[in-house]
Amino acid sequence: MKPSLLALGLALAAGSAAADTTLRVHYAIPTIWADTQDALAQAFMDAHPDITVTLDGPAEGYADGVQRLLRESVAGTAPDVAWVGLNLWRVLEARGLAQPLDEFLPEDPESVGYTGALLSLGAFDGHQYALGTSASTLVAYVNPDLVERAGGSMEDFPTDYDGIIELAAKIDALDGTTEGVWVSPHDWRFQSFLGAHGGRPLNVDETDVTFDSDAGVAAASIYGRFASEGGMSTMGENDARQAFPAGTLGIMFESSSLMTRFAEGAGDRFDMVVKPMPIVAADEDVYLPTGGSGIVMLTDDAEKQQAAWEYIAFVTSPEAQKIIVETTGYAPTNALVVEDESYLGDFYAENPNARVAHEQVARYAGPWYAYPGAEGVAVTDVIAADLLNVVEGADPRETVEELADTTRGMLGFN
Q1: Nearest alpha carbon to residue 24 among 298, 294, 303
Q2: pLDDT number for residue 367
Q3: Which domain holds residue 105?
């Protein structure tokens, strides 16, 4: 795969400084990442003149990118480092391609901003295979104008699901054009409610389904209550993503990565506010499945590995994470960026909604569970269909228990 022209230029510039190590870096989604990747490569080489970074031509998406990496590994042409989706790096680990990072991690990871929650994004079976580079979690987008019309206020905005459902019902009753609350019947969203209640989709060794717990029933019940009490309709995701910025939907639980899109879509109609996920369980039991990207080391050459680690450490450092936040809109995966005002203090002053989402990532980030085996993707489709059944009136406990049995069969856990 040919490097980008700018990457070649950067390589030549670094080569003139007698660079003795060259790293090939893979990434995906150029519409979001192209300018950011160029900026990160240049900043890294400025700080490491002995290492040249060349960027492969980007893949269109994370799934396409992983398939390319698998093909290149067979051909012996894989890059040294790769940016991949946080729910896809396990594909590379399962094939022995992602190299463990344990020996490179500092003795005190938290001292450099790697909290336990953030490290969990790339950990499996007691080893660290990836580090998060950008993140998004489920948040509540709120239209304060509709809240006020319904008799509420942002100063006293409810912090639990009971209060949100009560407020949503009042918004829904305003007139025939408004809807109170909406969330997609989707595996990632369900995992978010599940994690907020302290549950997990699978047990630790991934040999059984565990979402048929009280936490899982409570998570599914939110869908039923949003519909029966809060007035949530069965409109599709695209319609909901248009309804909220149009001003006809009061509260929408959606990915924090859509923050800029929704703010721009709302325009002058209303000033959107972001609220964190209501947390039910004790903090130590909570996880919020995290979307976004992670970085893995693919090279097994000792010299290249040291250079690759220097690059990985840089792009997950506060300095580089600042670049990522300001140019992509994703949340950082380094806690120091959020905690130390010198990095993003001005940015957060102008973007208070971003701080809400970013603090949630730093505190509760957890793995987006990918169901193992050939039927793993199909499982997520079954979950979505059953959640829609709950929205339409099915009993949450019966649905979750039957879903768990179905899932066990599909994954070969019976």
Answers
A1: 298
A2: 86
A3: 5-135+290-366
